[in-house]
Every structure is written in structure tokens, then in C-alpha cells.
Design goal:
alpha+beta; nine-stranded antiparallel beta sheet; binds 5-hydroxymethyl-3,4-dihydroxypiperidine; six-stranded antiparallel beta sheet; 35 strands; single chain
Length: about 775
């Protein structure tokens, strides 16, 4: 067991945290969280945790937030606001150690040293600590926890510890933390339990097996899912404890999740913990082979990119089409676990390029929740599909109507009623996934229906007015500082784009799958006259573009608002709307997050001929970055525009969001920022674009970077790319030959022969092995894989 508890030696793969502080603990627990898209667990200490709250400056504060989540397990808690929320399940890794009758507790005695290490290469959380008891006995321990990437139902905990004295009476209690679950028990057996949520009638089953290795006595079993061992210590002799857990979710009231949990436990106990660990490490190694981004020349960003890819990999599950990724993944419950546009716009590009199976499952979630989107559109008097701004499991709108503001008074939330661009964002992700992957089955199983129904929504939403134009009034764009605005450029241009894709979808269906086209159009009652209206709408939607200045007006009247020098507020720890107040914010040209800038990133073809520079130059200084989504989008645009210094500054800001000791991460990692960081580096500096015809690489490497390497999937192929200051190498690793455009120069990649394009314009074949972009993750010296 000892080898398994050693972290990877290369510090580029690990994050460490020393000690324990009530002010940063909750953020550390988010940052070091681990998961597999089905299960997620915060990195709270499992042994001798002590109280989870602290009294601080007169407030009771949650110092620690030990939580294990199951994707899709939402309930309607009896709290305000009454919206579905991700509910935690039993903390399966709880351990108590009692030495001569005294519990090993953080508050008793002294922590000699205590390190938590997130080993991103292996996908495991490690701990290594020593504690001196008031009695003088010193405890030293190491722990490993994981949620298996090879078998998503399974978790593993290993604990090895020793005392420095003979004859101490040791009591080891391993249990499942059941307190405060907020669920009704369905069954509670020796090794198996199941609970049902109170409001949504979903259920979770959990099964556990625990063992103490090395000839220890049989444990006492005083209670289900609790194991107790007692023995007398031999100084320096380690006890080795292993626990396997298995979890299953059931979505329907008549389903019992316990048999699936029991079967998963049986599977893993039959393998044994070593094989479970080995399979998990092998799955992570495979995932890193595809997903690692290697930056030679910037160690900080290298680590930040690994951290981003680590959490992106931990958040998705290609095998579950009924869930999507919440704004904090499964690392915390801020925003109640709800799903926003973050997934489609900030995360999907990563999954589409690196892990299309996960991208597909995430988009199928939008297919399954299409009825909810139709219902919302109809309720508000529109046609087609209006996706909820915040979504949980059913596809119903789950945005709270109000939340409590900082001074305890309710603040109305209008996003659920007005932030409609989500219905273009979903269509955007569907289209780009389908074009990049050629996944026609997905297109026919629901992708096309989303494109048609969202187009239909926008046509009904863009109302013709007396001026002969169509306007989209009473919306909130990505800049949520300005509410209830008319003709938000982001919304309107994306709406027009969505309608155009809807028309294209109808044409492609007709040309390639006429039978399915007829059936789908019949089921949607989509006639030719309606398609004619769509064409009309495209021509008439107002977009706020001024050909004289080349500027898009963010929304009608934005240019007339008061000018404000946002840089005057850059040093404030609080968001600008809190500093200057809501009213002044709304009356000023201050933008919360990338809005027109996001449009430049999403639809670069609309910003040719210098328009991108003009709009970026105008809006970038007006942005106060009041959202964790903002800096990454600015980084992406700046990188594409060749504004390298600015791009790097924004990338480092994004990286700092969750890596700095910032208590804002307490509610979970800002996963959209992490997806945005991947995009800024790979799509910005790397210039990667996946079209339906080819892979394009148009790099803008910072001068001090020696190389940037990554892999991408495209239409059943895997392509390896290595960008250096003097040229680009590309190699086809799997699949049939394809065309890649490198800095605009088309080259054909064939298996076994890498191609190099020098920036002098020379193209040459470099033979097999020339492009070896991603370093295969190395093994730890003590690795067990
Ligand atoms: O979706 C975002 C939104 O754009 C800004 N506020 C936070 C949400 C969740 O991340």
C-alpha cells in the first residue's frame, strides 16, 4: 500500500497544500476536489476532521464543507429560494481514530505536519500528516482517495498509519456520515443502504466494504456501514486500511438503486483495491494522453492548464445523457448545481475537440430537456424552444426568483425571465459539435430538432415593428449589469445565426435524409410558409452595427450611458456594482463580462476587416470582469488578435481564479473559467478551429514560449499538433487522412508521415514520429499502475 500513497514526483502534475486554516479550508476543498462526472467529492479531511464550522469575527462560518455529490441527484429542499438543488449523499470516507480513549482530533494536541496533494496525473487526492496527541503519542498517516474513472460507480480510500509507541489501545472506526442527509432512508443493511429524496422521489444506493490488512481481527459491526477495529499498537508498525464504496442513482420512484450499488461493490471487491486503483490510473493515463496540453516556456500556465483539464475530465460522464455540468461541476454547491450557458459556450469546445463522447452526452441532455424548453417558450408566449437560464434535471426553469442580498434584503433575479441567449448558445454548441464530429446519428436523434426549435423560438421572439425591422426587447445579455435592455447585440446576432442554422438544417435534412426530414417537419408542423418567415427574420433583425464606426452597440442606448473609467476601480476587492451601486452601474458604460467581446470569440467571421480590433478596443476597457467567465473570453480574443501580453495577463487572471487562495472558490471551482482557459490557450494561442471540412491551426505563440503541443479529435481521427516559434508540426495518429490548414497553408496528413510547415512557408514531410506533442504522462517512481 505504501507505494500507492506516494504522489507523482514531477511537480508539474501535483498541487500541494500545507496545514489547515479556517479561512482557506473551504476553497482548498473545492480546488482539490476529485470526481468522475458521476460522483464528485470535496477534499475535506476524512480523518479527525473536528468541527466543520468556526466562529470568526463574530460570525459562524463554515470552515469546512465535506460533501459527496451524485450528478443529477436534485431535490427540492425546504429552503428559500424553493428551487431544485444538488443534494449531498453520505460522506463515505469518514474515519475516527481513538487512542487510549482519546480521539485523534485536530483541536487536541498539535499538527506536526499536514500536506494534502492533488495528484492530477493519477486523479487521486493524497494526504500525509503527523499529529502529536496531548499524551505525547505521535500519529503519522497517509491517505489516498479516488472516484474511479474506470468504473464511475466506485470510490476507494486507503489509509496507512503508525504510532511511535507500543501498547497504545487503538480504536479505528470507519463509517458513512449520515447526519443531515435530508433524504428518507429506504433501506439500511449491513453493507448497503438506500435513500430517497423527499421532493423529487429520486434515490441513491450506497454500498461499502472495508478491510484492515495484515492479519487484523474481524471488525465489530455495531451499525450498518460502520466498521470498528481495536488492537494494541506496536511502535512503528503500520496499519493498512482500505475501503471500497459503490454508488447508484435511480431517477424514477419505482426504481431501487440498491441492487446496482451492490453489484458495483461486488465488481470492485472481486477485483480488489489494487486492481481498482490500477484501472483508475490507467483510465487517467489514457485521458491525459489525449487531453494534456504541454506548454514549454510558461510553468505557471502549464500547471494551470493541467488543473483545468483535470477538472474538466473529472466533471463529465459520457455514459449519462440525463445530466449536464453545473456551474461548479461536482466540486461544490454554489448555484445549487444548476447548469448554465457555461457548459455550451465555455466547456463544449474542450469536450468536442478532446472527448467528443462526453460532448455528445452533454448535448443529449439538452435533447432530453427539449420538452421543458418548449414549455418555457409557450408559457412566455413564444414558439419553439427557450432553454431555461438555469437548468437542473427536468429541463424546467430553475432560476430562483430572488436571493438574499448582502444586507439581508431580497434581490429580485431577472435572468430566469430575461436571459434568453441560452437558446442560441445551445444551438451554437449543437451545430459546432455536429460539424466537427460528423456525428449524424446525434444530429438525427435530436440535434436537428434543437436547431429547428431554437430557430423557431427566435423568429417568434424577434418581433416585427413599425420601423419594418425585428427587435428583441426586454432581455439580459451576458453583461448582467444591464437588465431589461432592448436589442442586445450578442443576443440578436446569435439569434440571427441560430435562425440561419435552422434553415440550413432544414435544407441538409431534405437533401441527405428526405424521409427523416418529412417526418420531423410533420411532427413539428414546420411548413414552407414558416421557413419563409425565417428568411424574412434573418434580413430584418436589428443587430446594432454601425458601418461608420465599425462598432456594435452592446444594446440600444448603451453608447448614451455615462462614461466611467473602470480602471479607477481595478484595485477594489469588491465587484464594481457593489462599489458604485446598482443604479449607477446600470447608468454607466460598464460591462460585467465579455458581451460584444464574446460575440467576437464565437462568430469571428462577423468581425472581419478590422472589426474585431475595433470592437475589442472599445469594449475591453469598459469591462469590469464581474464574473469568473470574463477574463478567459478576453484572453481568447486578445490571443487571436495577436495581443499577446494582454492575452497572457487575462490567462493568468483566469488561472488565479481557483489556484490562488481565494475564498470565492469555496462554493466549487469556476469550471467555465477552466474551460475558457483551455480555449484561450488552444484556440487562442494555438489557433485551433474545427470546421466541417478540416482542422485549422492559426497560431499566435507568445515569443517566450518554446512550444505548445496538444491533440485534437476530428471526425474519428486523432491529430497531434506541436507549435513552435518557427513552424508547426502535425501528425495523424489515428483514422483516415485529412486536410489540415496550418497558418492558411493546406496540407494533407496521412498515417505515419508527420508534416511540418515552417513559418517561412515551406511544407515538408518529417516522417513518423516528428510530431510528438504530448509527453506521455510519466509514472511515479512508486506508481502502481
Ligand atoms: O452563467 C454565469 C453568468 O454568465 C454569470 N454569473 C454566473 C453564471 C454561472 O457561472
Amino acid at each position: 500500500m505504501r507505494e500507492a500513497l506516494h504522489p507523482t514526483m514531477d511537480p508539474g502534475w501535483t498541487l500541494t497544500h500545507e496545514g489547515y486554516s479556517v479561512t482557506t479550508e473551504s476553497a482548498v476543498e473545492s480546488r482539490f476536489a476529485f470526481g468522475n462526472g458521476f460522483l464528485g467529492m470535496r477534499a475535506a479531511r476524512s480523518v479527525s476532521r473536528g468541527p466543520t464550522w468556526a466562529s470568526w469575527l463574530g460570525y459562524i462560518r463554515w470552515a469546512s464543507w465535506p460533501r459527496c455529490y451524485v450528478a443529477g441527484l436534485f431535490d427540492m429542499p425546504n429552503t428559500e429560494p424553493p428551487v431544485p438543488a444538488l443534494v449531498p449523499v453520505a460522506d463515505w470516507s469518514r474515519v475516527r481514530i481513538i487512542l487510549d480513549g482519546a480521539p485523534l482530533a485536530a483541536r487536541e494536541g498539535a499538527l506536526v505536519h499536514g500536506t494534502r496533494t492533488l495528484d492530477m496525473r493519477r486523479g487521486v487526492l493524497l494526504a500525509d500528516w503527523a499529529h502529536r496527541m496531548p499524551s505525547g503519542v505521535t500519529f503519522t498517516g497517509q491517505e489516498l482517495r479516488l472516484l474511479s474513472l474506470a468504473d464511475r460507480a466506485v470510490g476507494l480510500q486507503l489509509l496507512r498509519f503508525a504510532l511511535d509507541r507500543d501498547g497504545v489501545e487503538v480504536r479505528l472506526e470507519a463509517s458513512f456520515g449520515l447526519a443531515g442527509l435530508g433524504m428518507e432512508p429506504m433501506r439500511l443493511e449491513r453493507d448497503l443502504a438506500a435513500w430517497r429524496t423527499e421532493g423529487t422521489a429520486k434515490a441513491v444506493g450506497m454500498a461499502g466494504a472495508a478491510m484492515l490488512e495484515g492479519g487484523a481481527p474481524e471488525p465489530e459491526r455495531p451499525f450498518p456501514l460502520r466498521w470498528v477495529w481495536r488492537w494494541r499498537s506496536v511502535g512503528g508498525q503500520a496499519a493498512e486500511f482500505a475501503r471500497l464504496v459503490a454508488v447508484a442513482r435511480a431517477d424514477r420512484p419505482e426504481e431501487d438503486p440498491a441492487p446496482a450499488a451492490a453489484a458495483a461493490l461486488e465488481r470492485s471487491t472481486a477485483l480488489g483495491w489494487r486492481a481498482v486503483l490500477g484501472a483508475h490510473e490507467a483510465a487517467w493515463a489514457e485521458s491525459w494522453t489525449m487531453g494534456d496540453v504541454v506548454i514549454d516556456g510558461d510553468d505557471d500556465l502549464q500547471r494551470a492548464l493541467r488543473f483545468a483539464v483535470y477538472h474538466l475530465t473529472s466533471a463529465a460522464n459520457p455514459d449519462d445523457e440525463r445530466v449536464s455540468i453545473g456551474a461548479r461541476g461536482l466540486t461544490g454547491d454554489a448555484y445549487f448545481g444548476h447548469v448554465f450557458w457555461d457548459t455550451e459556450i465555455y466547456l463544449l469546445p474542450f469536450y468536442t475537440a478532446v472527448w467528443p463522447e462526453a460532448a455528445r452526452a452533454l448535448l443529449m441532455y439538452r435533447v432530453h430537456t427539449l420538452p421543458g424548453a418548449r414549455e418555457k417558450a409557450a408559457r412566455l408566449g413564444y414558439r419553439g424552444a427557450l432553454y431555461p437560464w438555469e437548468s437542473a434535471d427536468t429541463g424546467a426553469e430553475t432560476t430562483p426568483e430572488s436571493v438574499l442580498g448582502p444586507n439581508g434584503t431580497p434581490v429580485e433575479i431577472l435572468t430566469g425571465r430575461m436571459e434568453h441567449h441560452i437558446s442560441a448558445d445551445v444551438a451554437y454548441a449543437v451545430w459546432h459539435y455536429w460539424r466537427a464530429t460528423g456525428d449524424d446519428t446525434f444530429f438525427l436523434q435530436g440535434g436537428a430538432e434543437i436547431l429547428l426549435e431554437t430557430a423557431r423560438f427566435w423568429v417568434s421572439r424577434a418581433v416585427p415593428e413599425a420601423d419594418g425591422r425585428r427587435h428583441i426587447r426586454h432581455v439580459i445579455g451576458p453583461d448582467e449589469y444591464h437588465e431589461d435592455v432592448d436589442d442586445n447585440a450578442f443576443t440578436n446576432v446569435m439569434a440571427r445565426w441560430t435562425i440561419a442554422r435552422g434553415l440550413e438544417t432544414a435544407e441538409i435534412l431534405q437533401a441527405r435524409w428526405p424521409e427523416q426530414a418529412t417526418a420531423l417537419r410533420a411532427s413539428l408542423a414546420l411548413g414552407d410558409d414558416e421557413l419563409a418567415q425565417w428568411r424574412d427574420a434573418i434580413d430584418r433583425i436589428v443587430d446594432g452595427f454601425d458601418p461608420e464606426t465599425g462598432l456594435y452597440e452592446q444594446f440600444a442606448g448603451f453608447h448614451t450611458l455615462a462614461e466611467l473609467d473602470v480602471s479607477d476601480y481595478a484595485d477594489h476587492a469588491l465587484p464594481i456594482d457593489v462599489v458604485i451601486g446598482r443604479e449607477r452601474t446600470q447608468g454607466s458604460q460598464v460591462v460585467k463580462q465579455a458581451d460584444v467581446v464574446a460575440l467576437i470569440a464565437l462568430l469571428p467571421e462577423k468581425f472581419s476587416g478590422g472589426r474585431a480590433e475595433i470592437n475589442f478596443r472599445h469594449y475591453e476597457p469598459r469591462c469590469a470582469h464581474g464574473s469568473s467567465l470574463s477574463a478567459a473570453m478576453h484572453a481568447l480574443v486578445a490571443a487571436r488578435l495577436g495581443q499577446t501580453e494582454l492575452a497572457l495577463r487575462y490567462m493568468h487572471e483566469t488561472a488565479a481564479l481557483d489556484l490562488d487562495p481565494d475564498p470565492n472558490s469555496a462554493g466549487g471551482v469556476r469550471i467555465a473559467g477552466l474551460g475558457g482557459l483551455w480555449q484561450a490557450v488552444v484556440r487562442g494561442f494555438g489557433g485551433l478551429t474545427l470546421t466541417d471540412e478540416r482542422v485549422e491551426i492559426d497560431p499566435h505563440l507568445p515569443p517566450h514560449w518554446r512550444s505548445l503541443s496538444f491533440r485534437t479529435r476530428w471526425r474519428d481521427r486523432t491529430v497531434a499538433i506541436r507549435i513552435a516559434p518557427d513552424g508547426v508540426e502535425a501528425a495523424l495518429l489515428t483514422g483516415e487522412s485529412l486536410e489540415v490548414a496550418i497558418a492558411g497553408i493546406p496540407v494533407t496528413l496521412r498515417a505515419g508521415a508527420a508534416q511540418r510547415v515552417d513559418f517561412s512557408g515551406m511544407v515538408r514531410a518529417t516522417g513518423d514520429g516528428a510530431a510528438r506533442p504530448t509527453r506521455a504522462p510519466e509514472r511515479t517512481e512508486a506508481g502502481t499502475a
